[in-house]
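Dear colleague,

Following up on Tuesday's group meeting, I ran the structure prediction for the two-component complex that the binding team flagged. I've pasted the input sequences exactly as they went in, so you can double-check that nothing got truncated or mislabelled along the way. The structure tokens for the whole assembly follow below. Feel free to forward this to whoever is handling the docking comparison.

Inputs:
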Amino acid sequence: ILNVEQSPQSLHVQEGDSTNFTCSFPSSNFYALHWYRWETAKSPEALFVMTLNGDEKKKGRISATLNTKEGYSYLYIKGSQPEDSATYLCAFLYNTNAGKSTFGDGTTLTVKP
Amino acid sequence: DAGVTQSPTHLIKTRGQQVTLRCSPKSGHDTVSWYQQALGQGPQFIFQYYEEEERQRGNFPDRFSGHQFPNYSSELNVNALLLGDSALYLCASSWDRGLGNEKLFFGSGTQLSVL
């Protein structure tokens, strides 16, 4: 059974704060890691697809890094805004098929104005 | 361009009944995956359909079955419903380019309540 863990479970920050959270996954048989953002009453939306050790991806104020040797990925949000409030999910792929992703339980971020 | 659509949005059933959930993938996508999300947990993989066949399956009993139609739309069927089947059921589509790491496009889900 694959174990994908995300921490912290929830996070409350003030507008303008920078924050980061972690996704831990098995370091063996790595194929890819996805990050998704899930806003309330909407569908999960893909942020990043990460495949190589040392990968760094950026989208606006959000960035992610990947360490496959030690089995973790960090998601960073610079200057958090209320619209960043969402649950952030990571999904680990050990098989060559994005459909069979193993998701963590997510980190729920609340940004207070 | 319509995204992934699921129906119905909400559903209430009683124990022992059967339910069918429906999903239309994003235009151009040929692969449909189904996930179950219990409250406070991440989505759990049920199965995936490609070319009208079940290609992969997660750890779900045979009560969970599915189908994919020639137009790539899909159904999830659950027989003999249990209280524990109450969850949000998410459909996700992707285009199989053979890379194995294609991101998923999700629908808004069907909230199933079993009483």
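Chain A has no helices and eleven strands.

Cheers,
M.
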